[in-house]
Structure prediction request, 571 residues.
Amino acid sequence: MRNSSRMAYPSLSQRLFSVWYRHMRVYTKNLLSNGLPPFLEPLLFLMGVGLGLGKRVMGTMDGMPYIDFLGTGLLVTAAMFTAAYECTFGTFIRLEFEKVYDGMLAAPITVHDLIVGEIIWAGTKGLFFTFAVLCVLMAFGIIELPAGLLTPLVGFLTGMMFATLSLWVTSFVKTINHFNFYLTGIISPMFFFSGVVFPVSDLPSYVRFVAEIVPLTHAVRLSRAVCASDYTPALLLSVAYIVLFTAIFGAMAIRRLRRRLVS
Amino acid sequence: MSIISVRNVNKSFGKVCAVCDLSFEVEEGTCFGLLGPNGAGKTTMMKMIYGRSSRGAGDGGMIRVFDYDPARDELAIKYLSGVVPQENNLDDELNVIQNLMIYSKFYGLPGSVARERIKGLLDFLELSEKARARIRELSGGMQRRLVIARALLNNPRLLILDEPTTGLDPQVRHLIWDKLRRLKAQGTTILLTTHYMDEAFQICDTVLIMDKGRRLLQDDPRSLLRENIEAYVLEVPIANGTPQIHEADLPAGVRLDRADGTLRFYAEQIDLLKSVVERLSGKQYYIRQSTLEDVFLKATGRALNEKQ
Prediction:
């Protein structure tokens, strides 16, 4: 056997970058159709739901006007949705239909590099989608600056967190239609019950613990805290939750997808 | 020097033995062909060489590629090798150059080096005119050549090709064979799978015929032909009025193979076959030199397996 220190191949960071670069190039190839909706969606949502409904919602929620409350939540749900779609349908199509991974794994990268690169890419999309919502919120004048400029980083963490969960789900899926169970059964309900459209404290106590368990609640808390520059010790719990969740589901996703990719 | 060393390798999927006790060596600068029907274990064997498939649990045997074990050092092996998978898997959204640029990152090539090399490779595979074309605008043969160009990005010392010319027209097949021969002349070691006998005969120095995960025959193509099959074949389509021919009536040195619809007589001397023709009373017949395909069918049998 050769001495392993003499082995030549690109470094870990170069390998992760090359996976990220591939996704970035393919995504930005259709800049208009891929780049515009992230801005349009929050715009329409805030106009329709926020301005229309918001005027009828008297008073404040958690101490802020309703449109501010909703807007600061949308910052991270945008990251959640894009990461969830990217790492379910997107990953599955690359895995089963386009066979993109067969080509990539013929190059000097491992399954581990491939999946971690995928997670970082989903985080990047989360960052971009949060940034798009941020632009809309700035246009409406409903976000504090410069504090709000940090929210894309929360979007990055949120994107990575939902990427790991989605990849883990994808590792079980045999036909593409099964993703509907996950997206409409788990991701969409999270939008309504994680403190985005109304505070978690309004939930009856017997379902409130569910909101505390699911990941979006913690991403929303972090987003609101960053927007208000209101850092409390309790926020550390949410940060720890996000880090642990990403690490645990990331490890499980890699383990399971490795079995699927290396026969 | 051996570039690839495979010793007593085993791999099962459930109870099915995909690769059973297979051993072979691939010498530097030669072309080695794995031949077999679908489901013979060719692709599985190939994937084990670049770490895409794991060896069997327990006594999986030993594989060394450039002295590295693919189970441990897949990165080092893949950095020195180029792989052409069975399916093309190019990125449809991108054009030809962009597809190659993306892969140059996997090898850590600086942009200027990558551009220079891509230019040379497109030239080598006669794709320069298509440099800015979208993948969908390329024919099947062009896509295949592009995948080969992609595998050559890092100037590999070992080129691994899984069915490089399946489904391509004769012009493209000959072009690809020509390119592979030139790579070999430059010192590149080539490992390929194919079920085309003419492909193996054209470019391989050594051919291993396998079936059901086991080696049946291994030699250089000409010796395989010389030692495993008679030199000539007489083919007679069975039609109404084809005389009944019994093995016992045949001259010594003539072997009869009865397949559905065709009688095949094999012999070392063409005259022996001509004497058989005389008994056919003017029925349609065809005498030809035997090919590797005859060896292959003799070795693997004519019956279809469940994967064909």
Remarks:
- The longest helix of chain B spans residues 170-185.
- Chain B has a mean pLDDT of 91.
- The first strand of chain B starts at residue 2 and ends at 13.
